[in-house]
Protein: Deoxyribose-phosphate aldolase
Amino acid sequence: MENQATATASSDTKSASQLPQLHEPRNAGMELDMDWVAAAQANTSAIERRAKTLPGRRSVKKEYQAAWLLKAITMIDLTTLSGDDTWGRVRRLCAKAAHPVRQDILDALDMPPITTGAVCVYHDMVETAVKALDGTGIPVAAVSTGFPAGLSPLPLRLQEIRESVHAGAKEIDIVISRRHALTGNWQAIYDEMRAMRESCGDAHVKAILATGELGTLRNVAKASLVCMMAGADFIKTSTGKEPVNATLPVSLVMIRAIRAYHARTGFRVGYKPAGGISKAKDALTYLALIKDELGDRWLQPDLFRFGASSLLGDIERQLEHQVTGRYSADYRHAIG
Ligand SMILES: O=C[C@H](O)COP(=O)(O)O
Structure:
């Protein structure tokens, strides 16, 4: 990660509450352009070849690692999406989001306090999370629309969105109907997405493609474009519940679709890889990929998030190693 190696993240690693949480102007969307959708391609073997090279050759120089890891924390949607979630668990998660790094580590690194980018919970936990985060500036993201399958009737999904927004969610993570994508019914995906965005009101909407269930990278490219045309503010890989969640090949396809959409419309759409990202070194690989493909503007919490439940724990461990000088062999290898 040569560019990152020469840059320092410390100067722009700030409290999430000091940063724009939601990008403006929002994506206004456009008419469904079926010609563009039909032309969307994804050269699977080329993409997989490129993706394979990413983890090996990406590294951040040792002196900048802590800063980049802290920056990664500011872009985490700290998540709990379990069937056994309790109000207490959600409150503890919110407390962690407000103070994700121990003060002695921040002091040792001479870094200001930070927070995570958001807290992500089930629809029915929004009120609890909003109360717990009061005064922190951290937004609540709700998974609504019959998460994770997204198969409840559309009016119920829209009602769930409205209730999440009413309860105080500033970001709504919706899931698309995979069955429409798999049968090529892009109009139906577009119409549903439009209706969901409308129901979100001022809350930003992240469209979860559930890429592990879309069959092909070509479908991932098409679904990305259709959701952006329908006004998605973010596109997100996965619910975390599919057999395969965020991967580098899928990420390449989605962020190139974001780049193409920006080139055509001028709107910046955010990106959220989610599911199975639990290692600090993987987080750095994702940040390098974003920097390479989309540029620095996307390396801010209003345009990039990790959807992750356990990534923060590994980043904390790596930061502690940084401070104490006890590097794990695995991490030393990643440093290069
Ligand atoms: O949207 C976020 C994902 O559900 C989190 O997945 P994870 O538990 O594998 O980190």
